[in-house]
Amino acid sequence: MELNDEQIHRYSRHIILPEVGGKGQKKLLSARVILVGAGGLGCPVGYYLAAAGVGTIGIIDNDTIELSNLQRQIAHNTERVGMHKTDSAKKTFEALNPDVNVIAIKERITKDNILDFIKDYDIVVDGSDNFPTRYLVNDACVLSGKPLVSGAILRFEGQVTTILPKEGHCYRCLFEEPPPPGLVPSCQEAGVLGALPGVIGGLQAMEVLKLILGKGEPLKNRLLIYDALKTSFRKVKIPKNPACPVCGENPTITELHDYEAEYCQMRL
Amino acid sequence: MEEIKPDKTINIKGLVCPYTFVKSKLAIEDMEVGEVLEIILDYPEASRSIPKSMEDHGHKVLKVEKINDTDWVIVIRKERE
After folding, report:
1. Nearest to B25 among A9, A13, A15 (CB)
2. pLDDT tens for residues B11-32?
3. Nearest C-alpha of chain B: how many angstroms from A46?
C-alpha cells in the first residue's frame, strides 16, 4: 500500500513522529477495530480512531438516538434523534475521513453472536453501559485471545484498562463476578458530566493507537482511575489472578453465558 | 573530496514545511540502512530544519549546500530503520 498525496497531507502530523512515520500510518490504515457501544465512550473513541485513519471500524449498538444522549454523545446530533446510533456514527466518522470504512452492526450482543462479531477484528473496545455486556465482552476476548481496551464512566469518575489475554490481567482478575443488581447505581444516581466520556474515550483511543503501532506501554495489569472533580489520575496495579475463573490456571468459565440479572438500564 | 553517489534523489521544490520533511522521511523509510538520499529543495527554512530532524531521527547528514540562487541540496545517509 502506498500513501497518496491526500493521505500524505492528512496524516502529515503522524508521519513526522519518529514513532509513527509512513510505516505506522500504513499499519493504522490496515487495522481493524470493533467498538462495543456507540454511546458516550464509543463516540469519542470512534471519532479519534477515524481521524487517525484506522481503516476499518466496526461498531455494535442496537439503540436509537435520544435527546438525552446528546449532552455527551458527540458523534450524533439533534437532527438525528430517532436514528440508529450506529448509522449516525458511520455518517459522522466517514464524513471526517473517507479513508475509513465503518461497519454498522445494529444488534444486541449476546453469548451466541459476540465471537462471530469480533473474530475479524484486531482489537476490541468496550464502551458499553452495563455489567452483563462488560463481562460478556471480557470473557469473549479472553477466550478468543483478542486485545480489549475497556472503559467505564459514572458521574465524575472513569476507568480505563487494557486487557491482553494470556499476557496480563482480565476484568475478572479484578472483579470475579458482576455486582448484584442492588449495588449498581439506580437510574436516578447514574448521571454523568458531559465531558467525562471525552476524557476516558480519548484515553481508550490512545491505547488502541499504541497497540496498533506497537509503541509505548499499554495499561496491562493496570487500571487507570480518573477523578474529574479532583482532576486526579491514579494507576492501580491489577496482578493477573492465577485463580481467575476465565483466564486463570484452571478456568471454570470455558464458554460464554449471558447474565440475565435485572439491572436498571443506565444508558451511559 | 570524494563525491557521494546518492541511491535516490527527490526534488521537493515548491513544498513548504512540514511537507518538505514529510516527503523526505517517507523517501528514507523506503530505503535500506546505509543508502544515501539526495534532496533538492527551495524552501529556505527546510535547509536548516531537515538536517536537524534527520539527525534527531538518527540519520547522518553528509552535505548541505546552496547550489544556486534558490535551491539547496541535502545529502543524508540512512543509519537506522
Report:
1. A15
2. 999 999 999 999 999 999 999 9
3. 26
pLDDT surpassing 90 at residue B1: no
- Joined grid coordinates for residue A132: 452483563
Residues 23-42 of A with CB under 8 A from B: 23
Least confident of A52-61, A63-72, A162-171, A258-267: A258-267
Per DSSP, what are the bridge partners of residue B8? B37
The pLDDT tens digits of the residues spanning A91-122 come to: 999 999 999 999 999 999 999 999 999 999 99
- Contact check, Cβ <8 Å, B53/A16: yes
Domain range B8-77, its CATH number among 3.40.50.2000, 3.30.110.40, 2.40.30.170, 2.40.420.20: 3.30.110.40
Strand order in the sheet with B72-77: B8-11, B36-41, B72-77, B60-66
**Separation between Cα atoms, residue A82 and residue A191, nearest integer Å:** 22
**In the annotation, is B58 catalytic?**
no
- How many degrees, rounded to 5, is the angle at CA A14 between CA A9 and CA A18? 130
Q: Per-residue pLDDT tens for A159-201?
A: 999 999 999 999 999 889 888 777 777 666 689 999 999 999 9
How many other C-beta atoms lie within 10 A of the C-beta of residue A258?
Answer: 14
CB A75 within 8 A of CB A93: yes
Quickly name the fold that domain A12-237 has.
Answer: Rossmann fold (3.40.50)
